[in-house]
Amino acid sequence: SCILEFKSKRFSSGESFLKECSCYLDDELRYAIYLVIITYDDKKPEIVAYFALSSSSVFWITQSIYPTYNPCAELSYFSLNDSFSTFEGHGIGLGRQIFIDFILPTIINISKKIGISYITLFSLPNNKVIQAYKDMGFNLMPQEIEEYIRYYEVKNCKLMVYNLKDYSVES
């Protein structure tokens, strides 16, 4: 198998997802799967993290009677390899470092081509996870919007959004 070893307590089926589901998602063209891989000297490459991106949109009802639709990139299946849980990078956690160094630049590049305004994700309903995403710059969506777009795969998750206008190189 070309899939490298991946273990995650937070996402226990992460390795099987990479071996089985990612091919299905890629074939259906719903998601693009990205791997963050590191190689030390002559050692075998290791997956540090992986994530999936897909197109999406969110809308707000403004003062007009018509909603404002905003094109988005939806971040999903974001998972970190437990082998790297002791990562110490610039005083921030591994998840945030992956977001800053890999996810955000990928989405910014896509945004330049197709005009994405926001990044959305459905966070696990866990205060520590939600706070980690808030620390990356995500905000919880108002409940009425969240309830409107919720679907069976994410029924217990919390919708969060990152405004790309807030992005700066220093982030």
Give a structural overview:
There is one protein chain. By secondary structure, this protein is α+β, with helices and mostly antiparallel strands. The protein is 30% helix and 30% strand. It contains 4 helices and 6 strands. It has helices spanning 14-27, 94-114, 127-135, 143-149, and strands spanning 32-38, 46-61, 67-80, 118-123, 139-140, 158-163. A 6-stranded mixed β-sheet has the order 1-2-3-4-6-5, with helices on both faces. The protein starts with 13 loop residues before the first helix and ends in an 8-residue tail after the last strand. The mean pLDDT is 75.
How would you concisely characterize the structure shown here?
The protein is an alpha+beta fold. The chain has helices at about 15-25, 95-115, 125-135, 145-150, and strands spanning about 30-40, 45-60, 65-80, 120-125, 140, 160-165. The longest helix is centred in the middle third of the chain and has 21 residues, at about 95-115.
What is the element layout, followed by pairings?
Blueprint: H1 14-27, E1 32-38, E2 46-61, E3 67-80, H2 94-114, E4 118-123, H3 127-135, E5 139-140, H4 143-149, E6 158-163
Parallel strand pairs: 3-4
Antiparallel strand pairs: 1-2, 2-3, 4-6, 5-6
